[in-house]
Structure formats: C-alpha cells, structure tokens
Design goal:
Layout lengths: L1 H23 L10 E6 L5 E5 L12 H13 L8 E3 L2 H4 L13 E3 H11 L2 H12 L2 H14 L22 H11 L3 H7 L3 E4 L4 E4 L4 H4 L3 E9 L3 E10 L2 E10 L4 H16 E7 L4 E8 L5 E6 L3 E6 L6 E7 L2 E3 L7 E9 L2 E10 L8 H16 L1
Parallel strand pairs: 11-15
Antiparallel strand pairs: 1-2, 1-9, 3-4, 5-6, 7-8, 8-9, 10-13, 11-12, 12-17, 14-16, 16-17
Length: about 375
C-alpha cells in the first residue's frame, strides 16, 4: 500500500512538471509581426510560422504578384522588355509612391518594372497593367488567377499597387509562395536587389526601400510595404552557403521593425538549417536514347536548382532518385520534359524537379534511319 502511494505521488509530480514545462515553453522565435513565415526557397518547406494564414492588407508587398505576372507575360512572349509603354491619364493620376509619369510619356517596359521593384512606383504599376492586359482591372484578374493557380487560399487583390482597398488582402504563408515562384525568374532577383537606379538620365533617383540589402549579409531582394492600415511589411530573400531562405513579416508596428523581425527569422534559419545540394540548374543528370533522330542520345538537365534543407548535422537523411524515359522518338524540343529527380528526406518525398532536354533534336532522314537499322542488324550478328 505504501509503495502504491509513493508511485501515485511520483506520477502526480511528473505530470505537474510536464504541465509547468509546457506553460513555460517559448516559441523558437518571438516576433512582433502579426503574421510571419520563414520558408526554404528550394523545397517550399516551412521552417517557422506565426499566424501564417491570417488575412491582412499587404500594402506595396502586393507588387510581388504585380512583378510576377509581368515577368510571366515576358517569359511567354506576350511582351518584350524593350517594348515602349505609353502612360495613360489613369496611370499618371496615381498617388502614393510614384515616378510622376506624365500622360503620353513613354518608357521601356523594363524601366517601368525596375521602377516598381526599386521605387515601388504605383503609376508604373498601372502603366504596366494597362499595357499587358489592356486595363488595370483585367490585370488584377490575371493576378487573382495566378494566385488561384498557385493554390493561395488567403489572397485577393483589388488593385495592382497595394493602396488600401476593401477586400484587398493576403497572408504571410501565401506571400512566401508568391516569392518562391517569383525568384524562379532571374530578372525578379536582378531588379529587386538594385540599391539605386537613375531614371530620366539621372534627373530622378530611385533608392531601394529594402534596407536589408545594406544591413544583412546574403540579402538578395524582395519588396517592402507600408500603409497606416497594413503597418510595416516585408517579403524578402537571403542566401548563405547554398541555403536560400524566404522571410515574410506582416503588420510589424514601428518604423524599421519589418527589417529587424526579418533578420530574426534569417538568423534562426541560417543557424539551425543547412542545404544539401544535389544539382544546379542546367546540370547534366543523365542521357536519353533518341529514336529516328539526327543523333542517338540527348543530355538531360535539371530545370531548376535541386537541393534539400535539413537541420544541421542531418545531411545523411537526404537521398534522391533519377527517373528517365528509356527512349524517346524524334523530334525532341529543347526543354522537353523527359525525366525527373525526386528528393527524399527520411525516405519521405520532399521535392520533385523535372529533367529536360538540353537541345532540339529534329527527325532524321530516311537514309539515316536505314543506316541505323543496318548498323543494329550488323551489331546483333557479331
């Protein structure tokens, strides 16, 4: 009986200790951001989050999607960076951050995109929107369609520039996904990391509002935002030792707090995690036999950088598998998907990246087909 009482007492003490420990447990990062996410750019793995799905006004961080939709249009050949874009009366009347476009003033599309990325120019947003989609409203629909395509469930855009509007919102989790998609375009990284840009032959200077470019080692780019309603917001990227991270903070309370809170996220990420590189973008990962083509074999390359992210010291948990088509008939288009690399962490799939053909292979002539047939028959008889 005495032994049973002692055992019961020990169990009670243990349970109280567990409860006290849980009550006193602190999150891995304490942030004043209303909503925050730290994501691995390669795999989309969330390394930290706080209220990731909370729907909040994003202010000018809206322009991550504005730029993404424009760069996708350029990539698909719907517009060229050298195209001259003329400013409408509607675009010239925009308030807030702007480059003071005059009605009828023309600028190359690339210059306007840089003005959005570096100077957060609202008038440039409308000029670009009208040029690519025909109207600002049609462009906003493209932005919402892209959000739906990316599976974003906590995002709705009312305009392309981020000034306060009823029903205009997103979340830190959705913004991280937008950033991950945007950084696949080299031009997005190139533009958003420009510290200073001279416009109109140096008569108008744009200084990047993202101070992490000066203050944080490895910072690569991103987009800031502020309104009274949204408070201070920042979606950004930073890279160290092959590990590229995306940090999003929304509704931080005071000036510069969005930079401070972002640095907290990055410091945690770079201290706790490491990248396991598997292949670089364009790196050859195998060959496919080509039938009836002008050549017999074609190299396959990774469509994007391939890596995994793990807690430091856990590299051995990462493996990968390559699957390739055994043979493909010509013609073969450059960039055609002919295989894939699947990455596993602790035998669980975390990433799948396409392997694509490195060049175009046209169909061979009848004479080459006959020669190949004769050669294969001869080889078989030897």
């Amino acid at each position: 009986m005495k032994c049973r009482k002692i055992c019961c007492l020990l169990i009670v003490i243990f349970m109280l200790a567990v409860q006290m420990g849980s009550a006193g447990a602190q999150p891995v990062i304490q942030t004043t951001a209303e909503s925050a996410v730290l994501m691995d750019a390669a795999t989309g793995k969330i390394l930290f989050s706080k209220n990731p799905d909370k729907e909040l006004p994003p202010a000018s961080v809206t322009k991550v999607m504005t730029l993404l939709v424009a760069l996708e249009a350029v990539d698909k050949g719907k517009a060229k960076l050298t195209d001259k874009v003329e400013t409408s009366e509607n675009a010239s009347n925009m308030g807030g951050s702007q480059i003071y476009l005059e009605p009828g003033e023309g600028m190359p599309l690339k210059t306007l995109l840089i003005s959005i990325a570096v100077g957060s120019a609202n008038d440039a947003c409308v000029a670009v929107a009208e040029y690519i989609a025909g109207s600002h409203e049609a462009y906003v629909k493209m932005m919402n369609d892209k959000a739906a395509e990316l599976g974003l469930k906590h995002t709705k855009f009312i305009n392309a520039y981020g000034l306060p509007a009823k029903g205009h919102y997103t979340s830190a989790g959705d913004l991280a996904v937008m950033m991950r998609e945007a950084v696949k375009y080299p031009l997005f990284n190139e533009m958003t990391k420009i510290k200073r840009y001279d416009l109109r032959n140096g008569k108008f200077i744009l200084n990047n509002t993202n101070k992490l470019l000066w203050w944080y080692r490895g910072a690569e780019g991103g987009k800031t935002g502020w309104t009274n309603e949204a408070m201070y917001c920042l979606a950004s990227t930073a890279k160290r030792d092959n590990l590229k991270l995306i940090a999003v903070v929304m509704a931080t309370p005071e000036p510069r707090s969005h930079f401070r809170e972002s640095m907290k996220l990055y410091n945690y990420g770079f201290a706790q995690y490491e990248a396991v590189p598997i292949a670089g973008s364009g790196q050859s990962m195998g060959k496919v036999r080509v039938g009836q083509g002008t050549v017999d074999w074609i190299d396959l390359a990774a469509k994007h950088n391939i890596s995994a992210v793990v807690k430091k010291g856990q590299k051995d948990t990462v493996t990968h598998q390559i699957s390739i088509e055994p043979i493909i008939k010509a013609p073969v288009a450059k960039g055609q998907v002919l295989g894939a690399v699947t990455v596993y962490e602790n035998k669980k799939e975390v990433l799948k990246v396409d392997l694509v053909s490195t060049k175009e292979i046209p169909k061979g002539t009848v004479f080459r087909h006959m020669f190949q047939l004769l050669r294969s028959v001869y080889s078989y008889n030897q």
